[in-house]
Amino acid sequence: MTQPIISFDQVSFQYDSQAEPSLIDISFQIQQGEIVLILGPSGSGKSTMAKCINGQIPHAFPGDLQGNIQVNGVDPRSTSLFELSLVVGTVLQDTDGQFVGLTVAEDLAFALENDRVDQAKMKDIVQGWSQALDMKIYWKKILIIYLVDRNNVFQSVVF
C-alpha cells in the first residue's frame, strides 16, 4: 500500500485561548486520489483540522498539539508555511474573501506570485491552466463574472 497523502494519528489540539480541546484523539488516513468530505456542526473542529493540514497550526495559531500528522510525507510542525503552500491549497468558507485580483487571470496568478514564480513563466502557466480548466474565455474578464460560479474558486488552488 502506498503512503497516505494526509495522515492523522491520535491528534489532539487545544488553542491557548480555549479551556477545552478542539480536536481529541483524531486518527485517519487519506490516500492520493481519494475524495473526502469532512462534515460536522459549527465548532466541531473542521477548521482546526484544516489548519493542522495546511500548517497554520502550530505556526500561526499557538496551542497544545499532540499526536502525529503527515502531509505529503512531512510533519507540518517541522515544515515552513511557504513549503506547505506548495502542496496544500485551502478554500475558505467565505470564498469571496479569497478573490484578490480584478480579473480571472490575476486571481489564478496569485498563488504563483506567492511562490515567487517569474512573471514570464507565470503568464504561460496561467494560460495553460486556463486552457486546461476550460476557462480561456474568462481569462481577461472582470472578476465579478467569475464570482457567479463559486465552484470555480477551487481552480485557484489547483496550483
UniProtKB/TrEMBL annotation:
Pfam families: ABC_tran. One of its GO terms (cellular component) is ATP-binding cassette (ABC) transporter complex. It comes from the Bacteria. InterPro entries: ABC_transporter-like_ATP-bd, ABC_transpr_CbiO/EcfA_su, ECF_ABC_transporter_ATP-bd, P-loop_NTPase. SUPFAM superfamilies: P-loop containing nucleoside triphosphate hydrolases. CDD domains: ABC_cobalt_CbiO_domain1 (cd03225). Residues 25-134 form the ABC transporter domain. Keywords: ATP-binding, Cell membrane, Membrane, Nucleotide-binding, Translocase, Transport. GO terms for molecular function: ATP binding; ATP hydrolysis activity; ATPase-coupled transmembrane transporter activity. Belongs to the ABC transporter superfamily. PANTHER family: HEAVY METAL TRANSPORTER (PTHR43553), HMP_THIAMINE IMPORT ATP-BINDING PROTEIN YKOD-RELATED (PTHR43553:SF19). This is ABC transporter domain-containing protein. It comes from Alloiococcus otitis ATCC 51267. The lineage of its organism: Bacteria, Bacillati, Bacillota, Bacilli, Lactobacillales.
